[in-house]
Write a structure and sequence with these properties.
The complex is a heterodimer of chains A (about 350) and B (about 200).
Chain A lengths: L9 E5 L6 H13 L18 E6 L11 E6 L2 E6 L2 E2 L3 H4 L5 E4 L5 H4 L2 H15 L1 H23 L7 H41 L5 E6 L8 H7 L1 H7 L10 E6 L2 E2 H4 L2 H21 L5 E4 L2 H4 L2 H14 L4 E5 L2 H8 L7 E4 L1
Parallel strand pairs in A: 1-11, 1-12, 6-10, 10-11
Antiparallel strand pairs in A: 2-3, 3-4, 4-5, 7-8, 8-9
Helix pairs in contact in A: 4-5, 5-6, 6-7, 6-10
Chain B lengths: L5 H11 L6 H13 L2 H17 L1 E2 L6 E2 L5 H4 L7 E5 L2 H10 L5 E4 L17 H11 L3 E4 L5 H13 L6 E4 L15 H9 L2 E2 L6
Parallel strand pairs in B: 3-4, 3-5, 5-6
Antiparallel strand pairs in B: 1-2, 6-7
Bound molecules: zinc ion.
Zinc ion binds next to helix 4 of chain B.
């Protein structure tokens, strides 16, 4: 077992590649969200040859900082205790501590498939609105049932009454998802634009164009019914909130194909800062976890990014890099008394 | 655990087949039977065997029964106008124990869940529809878990009963339901059954 004490507002985690810098950031993320930022399969978070893992953290923002929050994962079961008391519902725990991670693979938000963007948008909305989270979970459960039914039933045996029920249930929850996604998508570009400008130092016309499965949320049921024959043939639900995407545009052109590497990086930081702003507007004070940010941004952009973070009065910022000198040199001018933890 | 007697070992293994019984507990039970008169064991095994051999399922409601028709369906003081639809036998017992329900039941045998391989044909839904058409009860109370699968099942049954004049209601869930009927205490459940609400099946 290893233990660390983070005493400064800005923490630099240094050490050779493969020493576990990212793991330490992820452990902090795990304590906030009870899951890894990088690994969705829990077994992959376990050191080889071990039965499980244990993460314990003392959050200084709670009433009694001496009492720890502890998460143990062993043989497929996760147990969360707070001040020695077992947390019975994970949903009661999530939201108490928040973190924002920026990691190298995040560029997938711009380059990757639609599911990465849906996860980003769903994450924003679920943090703000518990009804959204509930609708999302219900929608996903119904979708799994509907898809299982389509997959295992030959076309000529399909019970259309049952499909009709699933369509109604999907539409009930899905229309709420579309409505909320529309609302957010209407003012997200403006937020991203503002941060993009402060990072790239020149303005660009940024569009985040939402492509809803139906522009009228109340027509989702009709859409599902309309697609029914196609769904039966494909043996899965081919369209709905679970296939929607956002097209990211720079001066009207799709970013994926038209933006330079530098523009994409500025845009990514812009989106992450918009996420931070969103969380702060909800009254949350997230910890910032920066994995390998020095590799991702050039010195000028990095300097502007740090200065922005400094103005925002963040509770605590963690950053990883191979060398402590670079952290001192690039982050030093923006933050006082950086604590270096060398692994 | 090492046994010096094969007979004891076999008996312990038999008890271990029961849910929640480990070897230690099983051994305690076996040793207990050994301490008692032989008749106690005979009675015990006979009763279990008879239960297994003679048990059937009620032709009306699918309840566990001793004869073709269960004791609830047979009871003339139970109202046939009121059918309470439940998932399984345990839920029936829970509702029965509230003493608040004087109608009859229908056990579905589960909830619609293709993920677990349960489609309409795996449940006693068509029997329920048939029963409603034949006996024309006034009201059907859906006492199913307030889950996605519970909702699917309620809506699906509602669809199958379209065209009959039966009123479909649900128990007032949400107030004290911890998810499953089994864990709901009898007083709250009794109140919920008394205060049932019509299920909105018009939208389908
Ligand atoms: Zn019966």
């Amino acid at each position: 077992m290893q233990s660390f004490s983070f005493d400064a507002k800005v923490i630099g985690i240094t050490g050779k590649n493969g020493i576990g810098k990212t793991n330490l950031l992820d452990a902090i993320y795990y304590l906030c969200f009870t899951k890894s930022y990088f690994q969705s399969k829990e077994i992959n978070n376990v050191q080889q040859g071990r039965e499980g893992f244990r993460i314990e953290g003392h959050f200084a923002d709670t009433d009694d900082a001496r009492e720890a929050t502890c998460i143990v994962w062993k043989e497929g079961k996760k147990k969360i205790t707070e001040k020695g008391i077992l947390v019975e519902r994970v949903t009661d725990y999530i939201g108490k501590h928040t973190a924002l991670m920026i990691a190298p693979d995040d560029i997938e938000l711009i380059n990757g498939a639609s599911d990465v963007r849906r996860k980003f948008i769903d994450g924003l909305l679920a943090q703000a609105d518990s009804q959204y989270l509930e609708s999302l979970l219900s929608y996903q459960k119904i979708l799994m049932q509907r898809n299982a039914y389509l997959k295992q039933t030959p076309a000529f045996q399909i019970n259309t009454d049952l499909l009709e029920v699933y369509d109604t249930q999907l539409a009930q929850h899905g229309s709420y998802l579309i409505t909320k996604r529309q609302e957010l998508s209407a003012h997200l570009p403006e937020m991203v634009c503002r941060f993009y400008e402060s990072i790239a130092l020149h303005s660009e016309n940024i569009g985040i164009a939402y492509k809803p499965s139906t522009t009228q949320p109340e027509q989702l049921k009709e859409l599902l019914v309309y697609n029914r024959r196609r769904d039966i043939e494909a043996r899965r639900t081919t369209a709905g909130p679970h296939t929607e995407d956002w097209q990211i545009l720079l001066d009207g052109n799709p970013c994926k194909t038209h933006a330079s590497q530098g523009q994409k990086k500025s845009l990514l930081i812009g989106m992450k800062l918009a996420q931070l702003e969103w969380l702060r507007q909800l009254g949350k004070s997230p910890l910032i976890l920066l994995d390998d940010i020095f590799e991702k941004l050039d010195q000028e952009r990095l300097s502007r990014f740090f200065s922005l973070l400094n103005q925002l009065d963040i509770a605590q910022i963690f950053m990883t890099h191979t060398q402590s000198e670079s952290i001192e040199m690039l982050a030093g001018p923006h933050f006082e008394g950086i604590q270096i933890i060398d692994l | 655990m090492i046994f010096t007697s094969k007979l004891i070992e076999d008996a312990v293994e038999a008890f271990c087949k029961l849910p929640g019984i480990g070897k230690k507990t099983a051994l305690r039970m076996v040793l207990h039977l050994l301490k008692e008169q032989p008749e106690v064991t005979s009675m015990f095994t006979e009763r279990i065997q008879r239960m297994r051999d003679d048990i059937r399922f009620c032709k009306e409601c699918n309840n566990i029964a001793d004869t073709d028709i269960c004791s609830i369906c047979e009871n003339p003081s139970r109202s046939k106008e009121l059918i309470c639809v439940v998932e399984n036998f345990r839920d029936l017992i829970t509702i029965e124990n509230t003493g608040q329900f004087s109608g009859v039941y229908h056990i579905l045998g589960g909830l619609l869940s293709p993920l677990e391989g349960i489609g309409p044909d795996q449940l006693y839904i068509s029997q329920l529809v048939e029963r409603v058409k034949q006996h024309q009860p006034k009201e059907i109370i859906m006492a199913l878990s307030p889950t996605i699968e519970g909702d699917t099942t309620v809506y699906y049954i509602g669809k199958q009963l379209k065209g009959t004049n039966v009123l479909i209601s649900g128990i007032a869930r949400g107030i004290a339901f911890g998810g499953e009927l089994e864990y709901t205490d009898e007083i709250t459940l009794g109140k919920a059954i008394a205060k049932r609400l019509p299920v909105d099946v018009l939208q389908h």
